[in-house]
Design brief:
mainly beta; six-stranded antiparallel barrel; six-stranded antiparallel beta barrel; 4 helices; 32% strand; globular; disordered N terminus
């Protein structure tokens, strides 16, 4: 696994942008109503870094995804997984992001209430617009509900120039999504979900091998939770300050041959079931499914992170 997306191209983050995804996303973007007046502003509100997102009125924006290039040095993808049947995870969201430098990219996300999508903060660094589909399994097919984000809230403690702590962001949608059950956020009383060895699920549209091809159909993989001590020691051994692991803020999961990777940034690490429960947000890693380096996820039941998510969604 690797960095899921970085506007500054640092290896600690997984690339948000996947050129091959652009072709499939053309159909998605072509169907979205382009009616939000162009406007962009940044300020501090409600304890979070708030970004007012514009909705592109340039038809060429659709086609820019075709020529999209990676925004990072490390990859993120579903490795060692299987194809997801249509409609299995309707809370999943696929995000097409337009950046201030006119490049475009892709991230994952999860619907946490009728008009809020949770994703990674690094996905929104320098973001100018976000178009998305909720409940879509195959990118090139007309499935799910199409929306665009009007605002993005980045955790106030996230600092892209330092490390991946507090890598969480919430998108507010132009209108509510009906008929789809949001994913539940893990609570402080559910720390047992992070017990080493416990199997959790991660899903997305990323590549299926490090540096490999992307996939049109969502894929999923079951990954075991790795102890904080093991993950902290592994990433400390790199000597890279950008690859620090903070046990109170992060969850590590994965094994050789099974991981999330390129294009999966912002997607959920979750416990599947009658009630799907999100434990983490795809954040970063070193390589894809590399031995000794599990994927790293933002811990959503950390009090400071969960409070931010709930407040931003409201």
């Amino acid at each position: 696994m690797a960095g899921h997306g970085s506007s500054k191209g640092r290896c600690r983050l997984w690339p948000v942008v996947l050129a091959a995804f652009g072709v499939a996303l053309v159909s998605l973007l072509a169907l979205v109503p382009w009616d939000l007046p162009p406007a962009r502003a940044e300020d501090q509100k409600g304890g979070a870094h708030q970004i007012t997102l514009e909705h592109s009125t340039d038809p060429a924006f659709q086609h820019k995804l075709i020529e999209a290039t990676n925004r990072g040095d490390v990859e993120t993808q579903i490795v060692g997984g299987t194809a997801v049947p249509d409609g299995k995870y309707p809370f999943m969201a696929v995000l097409a992001i337009g950046f201030s430098d006119d490049s475009t990219g892709l991230c994952g996300g999860s619907l946490i209430d009728s008009d809020s999508v949770l994703t990674a903060a690094h996905c929104l660094v320098d973001a100018q617009s976000v178009d998305l589909a909720v409940g879509r399994t195959v990118i090139s097919q007309n499935q799910g509900k199409l929306r665009f984000a009007t605002q993005g809230f980045i955790h106030p403690s996230y600092n892209d120039a330092l490390n991946s702590r507090y890598d969480a962001a919430v998108l507010k949608l132009n209108r509510a999504v009906g008929g789809i059950k949001p994913i539940k956020l893990a609570t402080a009383s559910q720390n047992f979900l992070e017990k080493p060895g416990r199997k959790l699920r991660v899903a997305g549209w990323g590549t299926t091998s490090e540096g490999g091809n992307t996939t049109d159909r969502m894929r999923e993989v079951s990954v075991p939770v790795v102890s904080d001590a093991t993950a902290q020691s592994a990433y400390a051994s790199t000597g890279d300050p950008d690859l620090q692991y903070f046990p109170e803020l992060m969850v590590a999961a994965g094994e050789t041959g099974k991981d999330s990777c390129q294009g999966d940034s912002g997607g959920p690490l979750f416990k599947p079931g009658t009630t799907n429960t999100q434990v983490g947000i795809v954040s970063y890693g070193l390589g894809c499914a590399k031995a000794g380096f599990p994927g790293v996820y933002t811990e959503v039941n950390n009090s400071g992170i969960r409070t931010f998510i709930v407040n931003a969604a409201q």
